[in-house]
User: Fold these one by one.
Assistant:
Number 1:
Amino acid sequence: MTDAGAPPGDEGELEAALKQASDETGALTARSHAMTDREASLLGAARRPTVVLLAGTVSSGKTTLITSLYERFARGPIGATHFAGSLTLPGFEARARGLRPQVGAKAPMPHTHRDAVPWLHLRVLGVEPPAMDLLFGDFDGEVFDRVVQGSDLPGSVPALRRADHLSVVLDGRALVSAVDRPLAKQRTIDLIDVVSNRDVAASPRALSIVLTKLDLLNAAETEARQAARQVLKDVRSHLSERTEGAIPPVVETAAISENANLPLGHGVDELLDLWHRAPATPVRGTEVPDVPPTAHAWFGRFGS
Amino acid sequence: MSDTTILLAGLPDSGKTTYLAALFHLLRAGIENSAGLTMEQLPEERDYLMEVESAWLHFEPLIRTVATVPGRASISTTRGADLLTLSIPDIRGEDFEHLWEYGTTTEHLATVAASATGVLLFVRADAVVPGDFLDESVETVEGVSFRLEDWEPEAAPTQTKLCDILEQLELPARGVPVAVAVSAWDTVDIREDAGAWFQRSLPLLWQLLRAASSQFEVFGISAQGGDLNDPEDLHRLTALPNTTARIADPSVRRGEDLTLPLRWILAESA
């Protein structure tokens, strides 16, 4: 798989190819690896899944984190939670393949292409039935960048409104870099300002913060580590202010790590707890009747 | 008379055809078995069964389903006072592999899966492809670009493929009982329980079956009685006094009674 002559980091290749595969028809075409908006809508109409969205910049670790959840289940239950099925196992495998060692080498995960088929599905069973369906929106970080920059309206990403859990992702690698830290902080605050708007996220209770690459943060020099922690604190405060004083959950993760103290998928246990504890949230300030969404209108359900 | 359709499911070379051949011979020989099955007469359509039985009797590894058309195996049996028709179509492992890779199923597989009252899911003990976990990586290489065609569906872990196949056939959702036959059980440390081996070796699949509304049970099976590629094993098997000792004699066979999974399925689906 290694190709020494390839240009470094052609980051759109994986997801562009996935999109092409999903567009093609024919019995012998490789399967689509993930679910389209329409397929996710159909699932939503049938089963009322918990929709999870990780919102963050390019290469902040969103896809890696979602994939590590699958990799953890591939080893065994996560705490008391069992894997109970998935409609997108090829999608998880394709992403995991991008992470796994190839002849002794680990390829960096290319970033998710903007138009990639985004939805990954897991069904999990906790201590008591019924099993819970989780739908993960594996969106390109550019999608969120464009919303923050004002190039696209938040309404162009209806999943923001539909998400039961909308986690703002902070990249641990960026936070420990003196060069990257200021921009990372500003963009996170900008993103918070967008998603905390009452017309965007369904409820303040849907919002949380996920720190990725905790292993890199912990391995940094003291000064850099302290600076990173301060940013995390500032971001959390800002989100709290924007959500009328609510204290947003913060989950620190290390999806993949060479640190023995941070095994594979560190933090996914807490994320599963979070998603179990706080299921689908109603629209802020309104009483939403418990009407099953129609299949094609699902993502526009709470839209303006 | 009652009809029972059992789906033999599994990837290529997982032991489905070998099992079918050995089972047919066991029933033909009239050997007492744990499922209490007796074959009163040969099935009318028996060319496929006799073909695979011949290969089995000749100590030939049944590497893949020999028939180019789906092998039909409908055996009329008695079980106590009951007449029972066991329909155990031998579906090619390639059809299951195709289902994983392309998400499409043959009409035959779809029909059998929809009508199956039980599944006998084969996993070969000495051929499980494990997941390649991320924390076992050695080093990072800069500038490597991943392409979709680099993902080889056939290289995916065994447990992932089998989970996906069961999901696509909607078997967990329908609550169909699943008997897991760990084939080539003679290659496993005999001190390990089949259920423990399964949970340890295929934890994702174990979780899926455990979470499903149907029951599942695990059986260690050796339908060949040993490794036909091992000269010592082959000599041992060919020196046995009769054709059924390697699968029916508890002091000789390396796994459980071949009909034990069937007995379980019949009990669960009753």
Number 2:
Amino acid sequence: MMSEVIVITSGKGGVGKTTTTANIGTCLSMKGYKTVLVDTDIGLRNLDVVLGLENRIVYDLVDVVEKQCRLKQALIKDKRYDGLCLLPAAQTRDKTAVSPDQMRKLTDDLRQEFDYILIDCPAGIEQGFKNAIAGADRALIVTTPEVSAVRDADRIIGLLEASEIENQMLIINRIKMDMVKRGDMMNIEDIMDILAIDLLGVIPDDENIVISTNKGEPIVTDEKSLAGQSYRNLTERLIGEDVPLINLDTNNGFFGRLKNLFRIASSR
Amino acid sequence: MGFFKSFGGKSNSKNVAKERLQLLLVHDRADVSPKFLETIKEEILNVISNYADIDEDGLNVEITKEKKNNDTYVPALHANIPIKKMKHGVR
């Protein structure tokens, strides 16, 4: 298969880019795809921590670009998931240490070896962002259902279009169905009305995410978590499978659960 | 406005959020910096001055929003051009 370079971006910080990158990456490798995750948040690296690989870093992205080491030496093979590799960011430099051209060369090299190259983009629209999108074929934009996040996502969408990355899909993260039902949180339709790009998936707010990061074990490996299931479904949609959105409505009570059963059974 | 669409005591902060966002994005998307508006203002002044004397102090160019039929907002460039008098002999 042709390799794909996918950038995961958002504009706003803290909406779940790194968590999303880690989980989609882990899930892809579990499905047998050779996957590399690239952390471009130089100076504030976090992908290593979320994956639980922080003790395995020897070389990093900047070392590779400055030719202090070979690419192979910097890539960390995750021992838990066959086919998953991490290229960590440098922690003691900043985002000017790498240029878009260098990123393009790097992603070209990575295409030789991997099916999927996921680029974890830092927050913001400056050098870090420009580096992250440089080699990308497509973009996943992560937002939460909050005003600031949606506003920033809109700006990012505009910048991506200006950079001719037209294949863009949205991930709505940290949705809280109880707040949506009370009218205190925008729902999927509201956000789609505003941002008007294709939706890849919706991830519910889930305390288990905190726990999974505490342990350095991506939530897609947790069979019971709703967020984990959502990430697994989302990854399947990413690779072209047709998976309906989970009904995130956790209606308690007998009739609520009965209604849910029928709804799930009859939904497309 | 959307504030009054609620029924049954349901909170509506999300409708407020949505409306605020829609208005906000009209401006954000118009991508207009003050410098850009200044440039447009000058060029409009130059062109219209071929045909009329303009009260330059009263010249105002701004980006506002117009509501369309389907309840969405689009950016609109509004130029207010007070004319002192028309020039004669100009083709």
